[in-house]
User: Fold these one by one.
Assistant:
Number 1:
Amino acid sequence: MTKVTLEVNGKKVSKEVPDHTLLSVFLRDNLNLTGTHVGCDTSQCGACVVHVNGKSIKSCSTLAADVEGSKVTTIEGLAKDGKLHPMQAAFKKTHGLQCGYCTPGMVMSAVDLLQTKKNPSDQEIREWLEGNICRCTGYQNIVAAVKEAATKM
Amino acid sequence: MASLVGSRVERKEDTRFLQGKGRYTADINIANQTYAVFVRSPHARAKIKSVDTSKALKSSGVVGVLTGKEIAEDKIGGLIAGWAIRSEDGSEMKVPANPPLAKDVANFVGEPVAVVFAETLDEAKEGAEKVKVDYKVLKAVVDPAEAMKSDAIHDGVDKNLCYDWLLGDRKAVDEAFAKADKIIKVDLINNRLVPNAMEPRACVVDYNTASEEITLYTTSQNPHLSRLVMSAFGGVAPENKLRVVAPDVGGGFGSKINVYNEEIVCSWASKKIERPIKWVAERTESFLTDTHGRDHVTHAELAVTNDGKFLGFKNETIANLGAYARVFGTVTPTYLFGPCATGVYVIPAAYSNVKAVYTNTAPVDAYRGAGRPEATYTIERLVEKAAMELGIDKTEIRMKNFPTQFPFKQTLVHTVDSGDYVAGLEKAKQMADYKGFEARRKKSEANGKLRGIGVSSYFEACGIAPSAAVMSLGCGVGLWESAEVRFNPTGQISVFTGAHSHGQSHDTTFAQIAADELGVPMENIDVVHGDTDKGTFGMGTYGSRSLTVGGIAIVNACKKIVAKGKRVAAKMLEVNEDEIEFKDGEFVALKSNKKKTIGEVAFACYLPGQRDEMKSPIPEGDEPGLIESSFFDPANFSFPAGSHICEVEIDPDTGNVKVEKYTAVDDFGRIVNPMIVEGQVHGGIAQGIGQALHENTQYDETGQLMTASYMDYTMPRADNFPEFNLGFTCTHATSNPLGVKGCGEAGAIASPPTVMNAVIDALGGQEISMPATAEKVWKACKAMKKSNAKAA
């Protein structure tokens, strides 16, 4: 067992967990933050993307103990004061989601893109999101959402 | 009040999904739950000689281990085929038993043999490792084309043949072919696909020892149907003691129609071990055991005249059912396929022959489009080839054979109520700049690239119902849909539907149509689905049926609310009922202009009296309350149609195919929410392009699935697609009062032939099979170079 201490969505948390606990499991099972989804277990689909110290990572292939002491932001921590983050609002406006399962990872990944590059081209957006699989939308409205958010962020 | 139907209303469900507040099955935990891990056959075909659970039972944290022996002793029934299909010779289809846990023989890799329950997931996994199964490995039957010549894998199923089905008239076809100037022939493989909803299947079961009720949370497209099957065929519990909840479900695409082994086993076991159970599939388990799609081997012919008129059509198809026949397994390659075989054309003689075979692979069932993509691929490849061989423009040959009169009685089954195929293709040509293609081809050529254009015109039969029709064809249940509209005393409305949303946006579109009917803001309306304890009954969502069947049930229930409201308002306003008009949520007495809002009327229905006076607003013959329900069973399927045009560019040095342009023009009748419909079309096209260029399910000769993770199975990604260019035409469906047609599957039906026709066009007519991967295309480019050199 290992004691893992993190700052998750602005709150300090500390839990004793088995050494091999993945960050996705830590968030979902130990903190009940079930917005972070697991879609593939092989770090391919990106449903599990969260931010660790501001950068997007795949939480299904990261040990919780490996990010000890880090600041973690999950989809639950994105909206502030009851107001959707511009990326969340953009996904809603452009219909960038259908079943909602890939959405948390997709949104977290897209937020990191705009932190990295302010006004990405369509092709840059599509290439950045290569690590996030969506089976519903055909990606078109996701690309539109990122472009919409780029005008607001 | 402006109509909400037709507006791009933002989705109600997004607020929760975007904040991580969706509640999917794997998000549910129940106090004191155990974790289930299944022991699965590592062999495609093997006799199970013995199962030793003794070491697993002693493993740390293990609560119980159950096998095929116990489930058979408890007489728990197996999985079922939902449709009975007859062979051409009149014999009934052959269906083997499909027990929830294999007892004597395992028939595909991943078939569950035993299950271990433990206090933690890790302990359950360790326990499962300790279950020792002694197998005698048998030679597996894997290739559907060889199945009829191989050993029978199921007792009593000769030649592995489930049925040999015929639709149409062989004699008429022979006569038509005898008159033809030319016979166009194709040999096609419709590649096997894994639906891959992003949410893996899961179930959480809670058994209440006091009420003896089982609650099953599960990833289902049709919770009521699951309950019916588990109760009637599984014998797990009576329907009134079984609650099935399908909460937020992360995509289905057909793969979550079936009741699966794990749901039956965990529900049964929860009662046995008297503990809640949680099971969540890993992605590889999903690949191995979710029902797959397509997997047809087809030879088809089209008889034509030299000037491009179609005279006759026939197809001989082998359809792979996998190891067992499941809910839509037997109907997908027959009545969802054959009736669409002649496509959007007038073809006076036709037949469709399908031999469905069993193999030692995962069961094959409905996948987005189910049968109709396979049919469309067949006819649209033939038509494109006919255009090429006859030297007629590919759009002209289509126009020449379109029906011009509607209703259009097809040669095989359907009478298509409405459509305008010419308008659709004309619009697509214009949007795609069809005329400008040759210039673009030359430009590509100058850059050393090969450019091709492909067209496909499709129609499909969806909105799956009417009960009398489907039951006459062998369906085991009716396919109506139900709705209940509860007007609560304080004005909020709950709309219960038997349809189920797993991405389709029912919270929004159903609220739009109810808001229009009742004249109330849609914020006041909640759409409730997915819980057998809440809604009355329902057949669920598949076959693009939610709006055309379920939506109409909501409209009809709302109309009953308004009709009762009129009677009550008339009494309240002391006028005759026929003097009341209902408009924008108000009942208005025409002469006096006195009015009551629908909210006031609802309130009066629940509080029917007033102080100091013996007076009720409820007319004689009516009852208090304002709740109405409706079961809608349409008179016909709905028939969306359209034309898609695709342009690809091939790099002959790498074989890479780039989709340069994709234009889709569809006719879905009246559109409730254009934003949502566009999203459905985008998703369908993406899945179809995935089939054409990327996705393939590969078993090796021993029946091992080689593509069992996202490392090996190519899922289309964002950078595989261009921006799709969408347009619409509109002819109203006549089989429902809204005039709507289904839109969920169209994209996946039309796009594979559109893309393949473009690829084959770029390759100068050289046939190539799906998926047109870089390797295959590169080889084709090399062959083309060689033959060009020879010709020169």
Number 2:
Amino acid sequence: MNRFSSTPRRRLLDALWPWLCAASVALSLLMLAALLALLVVRGLGHFWPATLEEITLRSGAIVAGQPTREAPLPQAEGFERLYFTANRDIDGVSWRWVNLDDIVSRSTPSDLIRLERNPWGDFIGRLAGVETGGQLLREDQAWRYLTQALALPQAERPDAELLLVTTDGQTLRQSLSGVSQALAPNAMSWWQKMHTWSRNVWQFLSQGPRAANTGGGVWPAIFGTVLMVILMSVIVTPFGVLAAIYLNEIAHQNRLTRLVRIGVRNLAGVPSIVYGVFGLGVFVYGIGGTLDSWFFSDTLPSPTFGTGGLLWASLTLALLTLPVVIVATEEGLARIPDAQREGAVALGATRLEMLVRIVLPMAIPAMLTGVILAVARAAGEVAPLMLVGVAKLAPQMPVDGEFPYLHLERKFMHLGYHLFDTAFHGEDVQAAMPLVYATALLLVLIVLVLNLTAIFLRHYFRRQRGSEC
Amino acid sequence: MLASLDSATASQAPVTHFSSEHSALSINQFNLAYAGKSALRDLTLSIPRHRVTAFIGPSGCGKSTLLRAINRLHDLNESVAHSGNIQLEGQDIYAPQMNVTELRRRVGMVFQSPNPFPMSIYENVAFGLRLQHRLPKRQRDDIIEWALTSAALWDEVKDRLHRSAWQLSGGQQQRLVIARTLAVQPDVLLLDEPASALDPISTLKIEELIRNLKSQLTLVLVTHNMQQAARVSDYTAFLHTGELVEYGPTDQVFTNPRLQRTENYITGRMT
Amino acid sequence: MTPPRAAVSRQPLRQLKNRIATGLITAGGIGVLLAILAIGVFLVWETLPLLAWDQTFAFSKLSPLAWGTLKAALAAMLFALPIALGAAMYSALFMSARLRSRVKPTLEMMEAIPGVVVGFIAGLVLAPWVERHLASTLALLIWLPISAGLAGVLWHMAASRWRQWLPLSWAGLWLLPWLVCMVLLALWFAPLLENFLLGGDLRRLLEQHWGMDYATRNALIVGIAMGFAVIPSIYALAEDALADVPTSLMEGAQALGASRWQALWKVALPAAGPGIFSAVMIGAGRAVGETMIVLMASGNMALLSVSPFEGMRSMAAAIAIELPEASPGGLTYHHLILAALVLFIFTFLVNTLAEVVRSRMRRRYHKAGRHS
């Protein structure tokens, strides 16, 4: 403090506050980077075939598993480590905290294998042999047989029994039909791991969830999200554009128009859950209930349209994103110089001709930007969907081979809700966490890519127009 | 048309009259108010056919407003009210049975800064045509060539008709806008300071074009460039604060103005 | 040269088409605007039946929710405001143009991160971590601003060669590694300090001395998570407002001998005041209505407590959880719709206020620009 003794407080303030402000920027960037890094590392790391450890404890017990994380002991000095030990059918649990002080030795034997099974989840241990057609294969032969069999499509796999041994010596017979993947991660080269990693990512994107959302993928959720968003854009684009044209080109520009414009802008700030309430009350109970009593009275009281579904969700989100489209389109329309409109009108064009031939083509980039922003917002929105039609596990996809192919009344899965549900209502949250990270990463990626597209589009068209003028 | 230096008669500015067969436009006691503020007051004048008439005056005097009133461009703005009438070939253009789009076809307008549409040169000229008629391509091409030739632009653009019009220079763009207007074959062409945004050479080209075009149609030119008015126009009207101060043959207005106000303006003592 | 003659006029049809289309657009536009208006009408209509019921019951049911909403929003604003406004001031007044053109879109991108993702990180990653490292967290919250000031002091003491290497205009970027080091330092030092000063666990101390319960998911977590979510919207609007203040104003003030700090307080902030105010309002509106983050990071207990270490249940979260189960027409249903109405009216008013203030300011600038 002595350095600033002349006019101490003011000099100090004057010197320091820019640094506090600069640190705010740095801190915001840091938080963003940390969030994204966490998602990327945990989300993508899960698919990497992790090394399996075999540890000998002081008590003499031998445990095999995948080390997950470490934490200080709750009431004492030292640390403990969490192992994913799988084998829920044998041990009753699949996670185990081990005090670091209890570990006598650690090793990574290359013959440890990890099987993905249904039911009972993963198995970690050793393959003692394979029994097939009365023949018993052992050692390398057995492993080779197993990998070849698993490379075949599910239907063509031979009948076989695997003889498995856990590290603490318990044996187990497992039929081949329940196994979906077998890995010996400790014996894999980097290249093989890479291969397995990309296959796992692909499975995550292309398969349905398994084992109470702790395994498998999120394909139905991706499909549901995309379908809902497409339906929503189909609804929101024409109406949003229509309203924007009306506000900007046709309505008398007076106090009322200004009020309406402010109102529309502000609706973008109304919480999404309020739209959800509106959707539930008007679309689901109001319109849906009426539709049911007119056309589907034979199935009542079990509702057809009178419950949440794809159509109502799309409509609700369309209403939610309407302000986004209107505002973006209006901005685009307002940027078109009046000289263009007057030029067209002075040549004898009617208002419709002026709009269709001059104004709208010039406003297309703005509309596109608006729709993309709307889609980005809708893709990440979960709260209203909880009220109007999302399901934990939809038994049927909303599109199938059955007439009328697109089932607007069905419930559907949604990435964001899937994430919420798995993370907060799952049976084994610990086991599902990696997949939750992966889902979160996927969702963030989709939304960010959409937003970036909108930014680049806007930037590109603005620059293009600027250079040509 | 004798000059009177009496300032008492200045407010009752004499009007040049043309018999109806010589007059393309006649404006009678025309008033216009913009959001309650009077912009044009009691204008009466008639504009001769196949001549260039220039409106001059300090900025804000209402000359552009008058031009836009002739094209009924104020229709797009609700806060504009008017009284009196403007007759195009004897028809009141503000009459309810008047077809506005047809009026605007017959009265072309060129604006201060060039405003070509964001499309090709060809499409710019074809724009008005496509609105009016469904023509075979051959015939349309002929009209476009004729319009571009009339606007003295054909030789410069005939090899790049399908390039974007925004790649042309400012002067070329302005001539393209004139060609676009000519293509729908108007009777009257209104030019609102058509050269104010252009360099001197482009300005000369536009002026030459204006002189050449008067054999085909009636031209009304708004300018704040006195030399330009003197160079290209046959008649000159001097407007000030929404009123017509003096109107007569250009030679007379510039060399021997009747009123002191006009002389002050022309000699640059009043801006 | 005579013009080639054209024939076949399309006049009458064009006028008709124009009239029909204009009518359709008008009808469609008004229809869409009415549909938007219908939200408000619906909410009011569905709340009306409540008038027939006992009012005190509704009040007792809604007041913990209203308190929870306010508490969550308050916590978020406490966390977000200093950071967002500081960042806005820095990037509007000091940051180099090149860095600004990168940083601003990046921070605005933050806004796009879905609430469900932020809520998940907050509820399942941040909350357990903070529970284990409560002392470290609090130490971080205090230490980070101090360390930023420390960076400033060091910079002023450093040789001028260093200062040119690390200019203030790029500080937003090169302070990153500094902050990371400071975070690590705090994490390493805080447990030692906790042991030394408090003799062990801060949480136990809180419980024994002040009788404060600690819930894993609490207002602190919600504040940080929702603060993170509203920083970008406050930042973007406040930054716009500050960047709109003509630089000549600030320079003029400094030419008259004002320090940068005085120039900011006396000139920039008053000029950008309305813009900053509306930024804060819009941030508050967002914090009040955010559903998923509160739902996932707050524990959802309807409590009336002021402790930052206890959870809450907000109106938005209550709607999301209870409304799907409430039977339409029942008392709960109407109560929840009343909650939605309150949210709607509150956010709408706050946003309108912000918008009006902002457009006033814009008009004033336009005028100033014309006169200058």
